[in-house]
Amino acid sequence: MLRNNSLCMGQRRDLPVHKSLHEAARHVQACIGGVCCWELLRLLSPELILRREDSHLKGGAAKVEKMPQEESMRQCKQGAQHQQKHEEVPEKAEEKHEGLIEFHNSYRELFQFFCSNTTIHGAIRLVCSKKNKMKTAFWSVLFFLTFGLMYWQFGILYREYFSFPVSLNLNLNSDRLTFPAVTLCTLNPYRYSAVQKELDELDRITHQTLMDMYNYNMSVTQSDWAAQYTHKRSSRSLFHYVQRHPLRRHKRDNPAIVEENNPPVDKSDWKIGFLLCNEKSDDCFHQTYSSGVDAVREWYSFHYINILARMPSTKDLDESNFESFIYACRFNDVTCDKANYTHFHHPIYGNCYTFNDDNSSLWTSSLPGINNGLSLVVRTEQNDFIPLLSTVTGARVMVHNQNEPAFMDDGGFNIRPGIETSISMRKEMTLRLGGSYSDCTEDGKDVPVQNLYLSHYTEQVCIRSCFQLNMVKRCGCAYYFYPLPSGAEYCDYTKHIAWGYCYYKLQAEFKADILGCFRKCRKPCKMTEYHLSAGYSRWPSALSEDWVFHMLSQQNKYNITSKRNGVAKLNIFFEEWKYKTNGESPAFTVVTLLSQLGNQWSLWFGSSVLSVAELAELILDFVVITCILSFRWLRAWHETASTMSPPGGHDNTDFQSEVSGPSTPHRFTVEAVVTTLPSYNSLEQCESNRDAEMGLE
């Protein structure tokens, strides 16, 4: 009270003289918060106070109904104090109910607060131009259109990021190179002694078939005819199985009685094929070919595989004679020996030899060029070959990694007799990104196909293993050209009568990818390839062939009558030391994505990451206010339903809700503190009392 009095007294010089007590009291109330004090009124308006005191003295009459001045002043002060306490209570209550987290009372209030305080450019226009509806509509359309365009750009960026693009990195390296593995096959399916008798009988049946179909009399050796009569039981047995799959021909324009497995070829001659049926012989088809040569070779190969499958082990066919095939071997001007190669047998390509495999110390090229690689002189004459199975002469070569098997059908090529073939190599490595960037595999363990080969994972290894596993599952036996799975046996029509029918049906599904092998088998993430370039020249030349063949006959017992067609030379070397590495790197990283998003956000709104946080806060507040309003509506509906008792209701109070009366809703808004002007009743009462006293006087 003293502080307020001194405050007003300090400002009394600036205050005007009031004409009435009521105006003076209002001025004092505005100064000190409504405290009524006659001393201050005397200071502010002394003339009014003196005029009232003079009129009081002139009356001279006893004041019967007048209230004493001290009592009136006391009541005036008590009223002012009561009014001041009444105004302080809501302020304390407001401070008491202020919570840690508060939300706006309506969507309109939330939106106005956001637009007035956000750092996003253009949002303030939605509030400042609210008195002009045209501007408000214009800025609203522009604001949301900008948002739409920005998020459209965001969608393009996210789509590009989740497509996981890669960048190709090309590196050229120069270093000493490890020489690859080289596999060389004779192209001579040898008449092995273990199957010699059955092969002779198969040749006799084939000769008779060619005579019946083409009127071609094929020469037969005396040993073949001797085998025919000395092994009649075996002959009759083989003849019985061959007759189940006869080789036939018929005109193309005639309607086929039996379904064909291959599509027809538009030619005027007849088509050749052999019959294949299931176990009950109620479903058959012709495996046909447009060429009679291909049909005879495939039919002969089919029976040849059945003969080989009866052998208990491939070791029985191991009749390798390295010296009779390889006349000379040299690497980096050093002679090769048996420790530098391994041998295996191929049903079609005969004896095969792999140089520089994992079983020996690996060769390293010190220098590029033809004199620093592998040089071979090989025999290409075929005296003991099977003419119905192999129709070419020479040798077959394939270059591959040490940890990969040699698939001679896929990557091999033939060298010609009497020719020197020089093959230059260029090494190339490919490193792919795994995971989401490419569908590659590190080691094949995540591929749902069992690896049947004793080698590292490659795509061809997986594909062939997949076919073999499906073959065992569908046909009950394994194909002879591929590794044997555990617990299975090779197909033989003496045990599996209809395996040929099942195999060719399965092969058609395999090529059409019905089996899914090409989808299951993925590329390895790390690959090493060798790009080859071949050059050919006549070897030996006409002037040097005499002394060359003489030297070969002295050193290697070379006694071939047809000199030029019986020998060939092969050179394999690196073209250069440099090798190329193709690597992949992510083209769109997380850093790039954030940078692009920030560029788009700044372009359309000129704001930062904190503006995004403000937008997220707006969405959060919107959700919370929606939940609170929904809860209020449900609560009000529940209270209304509980207060309205339906007719015929029960009186059991245990099933009635306790209603505590209307309660004040929860305050969840942040309101501005506005001081309410105090009431002037106390001043007016004091003034009326004073006027009454003056009237009585």
UniProtKB/TrEMBL annotation:
Pfam families attached to this UniProt entry: ASC (PF00858)
Nuclease is among the record's keywords: no
Membrane topology type: Multi-pass membrane protein
Regions crossing the membrane: 137-158
Positions of region (Disordered): 60-89
Keyword terms, alphabetized: Cell membrane, Cell projection, Cilium, Cytoplasm, Cytoplasmic vesicle, Disulfide bond, Flagellum, Ion channel, Ion transport, Membrane, Sodium, Sodium channel, Sodium transport, Transmembrane, Transmembrane helix, Transport
GO molecular function, one term: ligand-gated sodium channel activity
Major location category of this protein: membrane
Domain of life assignment: Eukaryota
Family annotation (InterPro entries): ENaC (IPR001873), ENaC_chordates (IPR004724), ENaC_CS (IPR020903)
GO CC, alphabetical: acrosomal vesicle; apical plasma membrane; motile cilium; sodium channel complex
Subcellular location: Apical cell membrane; Cell projection, Cilium, Flagellum; Cytoplasmic granule; Cytoplasmic vesicle, Secretory vesicle, Acrosome
Residue spans of biased composition, Basic and acidic residues class: 60-74
Keyword Coiled coil: no
Function: This is one of the three pore-forming subunits of the heterotrimeric epithelial sodium channel (ENaC), a critical regulator of sodium balance and fluid homeostasis. ENaC operates in epithelial tissues, where it mediates the electrodiffusion of sodium ions from extracellular fluid through the apical membrane of cells, with water following osmotically.
Protein name in UniProt: Epithelial sodium channel subunit alpha
Organism: Alligator mississippiensis
Lineage of the species this protein comes from: Eukaryota, Metazoa, Chordata, Craniata, Vertebrata
